[in-house]
Design a protein that fits this description.
alpha/beta, 60s Ribosomal Protein L30, Chain: A, Alpha/beta knot, 11 helices, elongated
């Protein structure tokens, strides 16, 4: 398949891609998004996805373009003028390759031994990183409040590095109601609490609850959690950021379960 060369901002396909790059509403209505770079594209394919459109910058090396065409699987191919490609790219230094893809929807799990519950995470890089860490730790579900950033935005996808393709997401959740119905232990991470997280047993079904980067957890969500704990910090800093706190907690759960398996 020969690629279509696009040099005008009035091109209807370019306009559609630009909406996907910039608008959460457009992504939600279409159920589509843009992936940046070949690594994410390969992760998407590995998860069973087939790209709808492959997009290269005009400066893309010919052998790279030939490889993408050969592996396109019937996807439409576009070559964009470099200035147009830069308008779509989520990074200052574009990778040169984008893909228009449909959202993947891993099925919601029957069992939920490890869940992350995120309230109003605003930074797309933080959100993507948290999803990536959760997937790496073996979480089976991520529950996101309505105030969270769009997990399918190009920047969140870059942070997730494929997590959104394999980790089931429950979006726009009423967190207090969800926690009330969770059949397991819910543990809220909060700086001002006195209970030490490392003293809590997390070998059974556990939901880890993390709040907004600046404001933390709302009072309603904190009250809905069964336990409210802090991660001990012997060093001379005020706090961990949300993504780092969740990573520390997730892999403490992993450690406890590995010890339990070998005991």
């Amino acid at each position: 398949m020969h690629p279509t060369i696009v040099i005008s901002r009035d091109n209807p396909v370019f306009r559609r891609l630009k909406k996907l790059a910039e608008s959460a509403r457009a992504r939600r209505e279409a159920g589509m998004t843009l992936l940046d770079g070949e690594h994410l594209l390969e992760a998407y394919r590995d998860a069973g996805g087939t790209p709808h459109t492959l997009v290269c910058a005009a400066a893309c090396a010919p052998d790279r373009l030939e490889m993408l065409v050969a592996r396109g699987g019937g996807a439409r191919m576009l070559v964009l003028a470099d200035a147009l490609f830069a308008e779509l790219s989520p990074v200052t230094t574009p990778t040169g390759v984008l893909a228009e893809v449909a959202w993947l929807a891993p099925p919601l799990p029957v069992a939920m031994p490890l869940v992350i519950v995120l309230e109003d995470i605003q930074d797309p890089g933080n959100l993507g990183s948290m999803l990536r860490t959760a997937a790496a730790a073996g979480a089976t579900l991520a529950v996101l409040s309505k105030g969270c950033h769009d997990p399918w935005s190009p920047k969140a996808l870059r942070g997730g590095q494929g997590a959104q393709f394999v980790l089931p997401l429950l979006r726009d959740a009423d967190l207090a109601a969800w926690l009330a119905g969770f059949d397991g232990q819910s543990v809220a991470l909060a700086l001002a609490e006195s209970e030490d997280f490392y003293a809590v047993s997390c070998t059974g079904p556990t939901a880890l609850v993390v709040g907004n980067e600046g404001a933390g957890l709302s009072a309603a969500t904190a009250r809905a959690a069964q336990r409210r704990v802090r991660i001990p910090m012997p060093g001379r800093v005020e706090s961990l950021n949300a993504a780092a706190a969740l990573a520390a907690a997730l892999f403490e759960v992993v450690r406890q379960r590995r010890v339990g398996e070998t005991a």
